[in-house]
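Notes from the 1:1 (GR / supervisor)

We went over the backlog. Supervisor wanted to see one worked example end to end before approving the batch request, so GR pasted a single chain during the call. The sequence is below; no edits were made to it. Supervisor asked that the structure be written out right there so they could see what the output format looks like.
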Amino acid sequence: MICDRYAHSGVAYSASKGLNFDWCVNCDRGLVAPDAIIYLDLTVEEAMKRGDFGLERYEKKDFQEKIRETFLSLKARDENTVPWHVIDANKSKEELHTEIKLLVDRIIAESAGQPLKKLWC
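Structure output shown during the call:
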């Protein structure tokens, strides 16, 4: 299964709203850990240049900066357990598609037959 959001997104958004980081993590502790995380990294300044930035309730500069910081904190926390692949999202859709497709194909091949792990345990 490939999903576009999982526990890390919930933690990043909830903690960025002011909830205790450890409490947010503990809510999802023990879930099936992802085989990998693909994080599309884009500075808030670059995101603001894209169409319709700010129309969605969470698309505010300060909040987006906080969410990005929280995601990077999660990456550091996962350093030895879940592989993160940080991709520069300031590329064309075609370039991103090609890079992500190759990466996903590799992750699927490498994780085939591997035992499931638990998240944050």
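Supervisor's comment: Residues 9 and 38 are 12 Å apart (CA to CA).
Batch request approved.
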